[in-house]
Amino acid sequence: MARIYDFDARALYRALDDKRAAHNLTWTGVAREIWLLSSVLNDQRSDHPISPATISSMERRGSISCQHALFMLRWLDRTPESFLTGTAPREATALVIVGPDRRLRWALKLLHAAVNAKRQEDKLTWAELADLLRCSPNQLTGLRTAKFATGMNLAMKTTQWLDRPAADFVYASKW
User: Fold this and answer.
1) Whose CA is closest to 115, among 128, 99, 104, 103?
2) Is the separation of the CB atoms in 7 and 133 below 8 Å?
3) Could you say which of 25, 70, 76, 80 would form a disulfide bridge with 166 (CB–CB 3.0 to 4.6 Å)?
4) Average pLDDT, the chain
5) How far apart are CA 36 and CA 42, in angstroms?
6) Could you report the per-residue pLDDT of 1-31, keeping only the tens digit for each?
């Protein structure tokens, strides 16, 4: 099995900060630009925008939810694989390009189904797989019932273990 790398949320933060500085934006300005990428959908849904604190605190926390990461990756036009730690980044498939009437979303139930199928094929228990992925069994089984998100690190560990690009589990959503 190939080595499974962590998702580097601090590197994502640095890429956001570099673009923020290059465009002379505050974190509020970054959050506004990210939110405006889905302006039509936002107007239809009357959602609350992404918080500047969600972005700016990522460096301190060292983590981000998989759904929030997609907002940021879209703004940067980068793949999740480009933020994996380790030597050479794995080959990645570009995320689907969406217009202002859509958002990128993780299909967590689909991800869980793929993980469970491979786990059964490999004759692994949830505990054994959790050991391989350096997480808890509950984190893995929780993908089936996750209402909104999981951590980006877990999402990326599972896609690597499946030997599939993250884009296989990301779709254009009207929500």
Assistant:
1) 128
2) no
3) 80
4) 92
5) 8
6) 678 999 999 999 999 999 999 999 999 999 9
The single residue listed with the structure tokens 């933060």 is 13
CA distance 135 to 36: 34
* Secondary structure, 3-state, the chain: CCCCCCECHHHHHHHHHHHHHHCCCCHHHHHHHHHHCCHHHHHHHCCCCCCHHHHHCHHHHCCCEHHHHHHHHHHHCCCHHHHECCCCCCCCCCCCCCCCCCEEEECHHHHHHHHHHHHHHCCCCHHHHHHHHCCCHHHHHHHHCCCCCCEHHHHHHHHHHHCCCHHHHEEEECC
Residues 6+ apart with CB under 8 A from 62: 9, 10
- Backbone φ and ψ for 161, nearest 5 degrees, come out as -60, -35
Residue 145 burial (CB < 10 Å; 0-12/13-18/19+)? exposed
* Strands 103-106 vs 170-173: parallel, antiparallel or unpaired: antiparallel
Read off the tokens for 127. 């505990």
